[in-house]
Amino acid sequence: MADYDYDVLVIGAGPGGYVAAIRAAQLGLKTACADGRATLGGTCLNVGCIPSKAMLHASEYYDAAANGMMAKMGIDVTPKLNLPAMHAQRIDAVKGLTGGIEFLFKKNKVDWLKGYAAFTGKDSVEVAGKTYRAKNIIIATGSSVTPLPGVDVDNDKQIIVDSTGALELAKVPDHLVVIGGGVIGLELGSVWRRLGAKVTCVEFLDQILPGMDADVRKDANRIFKKQGIEFKLKTKVTGAVVKGKKAVLTLEPAAGGDAETLEADVVLVSIGRRPNTEGLALDKAGLVVNARGQIETNHDFSTEVPGIWAIGDVIPGPMLAHKAEDEGIACAENIAGQTGIVNHDVIPSVVYTWPEIAGVGLTEEQAKEKGEVKVGKFPMAGNSRAKTNHEPDGFVKIIADAKTDRVLGVWCIASVAGTMIAQAAQAMEFGATSEDIAYTCHAHPTHSEAIKEAAMAVTGKPIHI
Ligand code: FAD
Ligand code: NAD
Q1: Ligand found nearest the CA of 55
Q2: Does residue 333 register a pLDDT over 80?
Q3: CA–CA distances in Å: residue 86 to residues 137, 172, 267
Q4: Which in 47, 284, 312, 350 has the greatest CB count within 10 A?
Q5: What is the pLDDT of residue 283?
Q6: 167 CA to middle of ligand 2, Å?
Q7: CATH number listed for the domain at residues 6-145+274-335
Q8: Which residues contact 107 (CB under 8 A, 6 or more apart)?
Q9: Closest Cα partner for 245 from 267, 269, 265, 261?
Q10: CA 304 to centroid of ligand 1, rounded, Å
Q11: 349-458: same fold as 6-145+274-335?
C-alpha cells in the first residue's frame, strides 16, 4: 500500500457506492466511502425508493378502505387519515434502513468519511479538509432533480416541490399538479390521489411513461384515468408563480399554441434527474463528462483515467437502484482482479403504483426494429388469483424472437407485477425461450400463472382465455 491511505475510496454512499464499498471490503481491500449526507444510503434510502414505497404502501391500505375494495371483501370500514402517523412510519423505515448500512460498514470495516469529496489529483480526494490517496477511486455520486426553468422549487414552502418535498407534505393538497408523467409523477401522484387530492398530470409527450412498451403506456393511462388522475398530454408548463398559498401555472400545447393557466395548491416538478458531478473537480482528475453530463465508462466500469471507476446514476443507463447495486458489485470485483459483469439488456424496471407496472428487456416496438417477433398476451382478468382478489386490470405480454423463440422482453401490469417480473428477468438471463416458460410448472393460484399463459399465447395456446 506504501503511501496510499486506501485500496478503494468510494465517493457517494447510495446503493451503488455503499454496495461497492461493502463488496470491496469483503474482497479484502482497505476501503473508505465518502458521503456528506447525515445518513448513509444515498437518494434511494433517504429520499427515494424507500420513503416513496413507505407512503405508497400505507396509502394503498387507506385507498382500499376508502374506495370500496375492502367492502367488496366483506369488511365495512370508514378510514380516518392520521397523516403524521403515516409520515412517522416512513421516517422510521428510513431510519432503520440507513442505520442498517452504518452497521454493515462497521461490520465490514468500511471507513465512512463524513463530507463531500473533491478530486485533488488522479489518485487523491479531499474530504472535510483532509486529503486521502487511494489506488482506486469509484465515483458513485448519483443524481439530483432536473430543474424546470420558470418553476422554482421551494420544498420548505410546500407549494412548488420536488420528489423530496412531495414525500413530506404536511397536509393533503386539494389540487396537486404533477409536471411529468414519468415514474415519480405517477407514484407520488398516486399517493396523494389516494389520500384525497385531485391530481392533474401535465406531460410533454403524447403518452405517459416514456421508454415503456406502447401497450403498457396506453393501458396504464386508462387505469390511472379511471382512478381519477386527469392527464394533460402533449402539454408543456412554461412558468409558475406563487400567489399566497397557491401556485398558478402557465401551460401551452407542446407543439405551440394558446396558453392557459392552471391553479394548484401543490406543484410537483418531476421531469427527470441529472447526474451529480458539480463540486467533484473532475478536471483535477483529468475526467470530462459527456453531453448529458454523465461520466462514460468501459464495460468493466473503468473510466478513461486508470484507477478511476464510475457506477450508478452518474453513468449512462437507467437510473435505478438495483442497476447501481449490481454495477457496484461488478466494479469492486473488477478492481479485485475478478470478472464483474452486468447484463444491461436485462435490467427490470417497476412502477410501484396500483396496479404495479413492470418490464424487462425490449419493448415490442424496439424488438420489431431488430427483426421479426412473436407476441403472446394474457389479461389479468383471465387469471384466477387476480380475479378472486378483485384485481381485473392489466395483462402480461411476452415478446419472443420469431425464429429462435428466445424471449426478448416481458411487460406486465398487475397488482404484484414488480414481484412477477423477477422470474422473467431470470428466464431471460438464462436465455429462455417462450416455450421454456410455458412448460415451467407455476404454482396455482398465483398471479405468476399469467406469465406462463402469456408464454403459451406466443404460440397461440393459452388455456384460460
Ligand atoms: P444516489 O443514491 O443518488 O447516491 C449518491 C450519493 O452520493 C448521495 O448520498 C450523495 O449525497 C452523495 N454524493 C454526491 N456528491 C458527492 C460528493 N462530491 N462527495 C461525497 N458524496 C457525494 N430506483 C429504483 O430502482 N426503485 C425505486 O423504487 C426508486 N424509487 C425512487 C423514488 C424517488 C422519489 C427517487 C428520487 C428515486 C427513486 N429511484 C428508484 C431511483 C434511485 O434512487 C436511484 O437510481 C439510486 O439511488 C441511484 O443510486 P446511486 O448510488 O447511483 O446514487
Ligand atoms: P422520468 O424520466 O421517469 O419522467 C419524466 C417525465 O417528464 C417524462 O415523461 C417526460 O416526458 C416528462 N417531461 C420532461 N420535461 C417536461 C416538461 N417540461 N413538461 C412536462 N413533462 C415533461 O423522470 P422522473 O419521474 O422524474 O424520475 C427520475 C428517475 O428516477 C427516473 O429515471 C426513474 O428511473 C427513477 N425512479 C425510479 C422509480 C422506480 O423504479 N419505481 C421511482 C422513482 C424514480
Answers
A1: 1
A2: yes
A3: 40, 12, 21
A4: 312
A5: 98
A6: 16
A7: 3.50.50.60
A8: none
A9: 265
A10: 23
A11: no
pLDDT of 1 over the 80 cut: no
pLDDT of residue 390: 96
**Domain parsing of the chain, residue ranges:** 6-145+274-335, 160-271, 349-458
Q: Is 358 in the pocket of ligand 1 (CB under 6 A)?
A: no
- 399 closest CA partner among 389, 391, 410, 414: 410
Ligand at shortest distance from the CA of 277: 1
Shortest-distance ligand to the CA of residue 10? 1
153 CA distance to ligand 2 centroid (A)?
16
Residue type, 336: A
Is residue 313 within 6 Å of ligand 2 at its C-beta? no
Ligand 2 pocket residue status of 35, Cβ below 6 Å = no
175 as an active site residue: the answer is no
Q: Is pTM beyond 0.85 here?
A: yes
* Set 57, 444, 447, 464: catalytic member: 444
CA–CA dist 232, 178 (Å, integer): 10
Q: Which three cell numbers stand for residue 383?
A: 387469471
C-alpha 51 – ligand 1 centre gap (Å): 13
Q: Specify whether the CB–CB gap between 358 and 425 falls below 8 A.
A: no
The reply to whether ligand 2 has any atom less than 6 angstroms from the CB of 351 is yes
Q: Which strands, in side-by-side order, build the sheet including 198-202? A: 160-161, 266-269, 175-179, 198-202, 230-232
Considering the chain, what percentage of its residues have pLDDT values greater than 70? 100
- Residue bearing the CA closest to ligand 1, atom 3: 142
Q: Which of 43, 270, 315, 421 to mutate to test the pocket of ligand 1 (most atoms within 8 A of CB)?
A: 43
Domain range 160-271, its CATH number among 3.40.50.720, 3.50.50.60, 2.30.110.10, 3.10.270.10: 3.50.50.60
List, in order, residues 6 or more apart from 330 with CB less than 8 Å away: 300, 301, 340, 341, 342
Reported as a single tens digit per residue, the pLDDT across 161-206 is: 999 999 999 999 999 999 999 999 999 999 999 999 999 999 999 9
Check pocket membership of 13 for ligand 1, CB cut-off 6 A: yes
Q: How far apart are CA 193 and CA 135, in angstroms?
A: 50
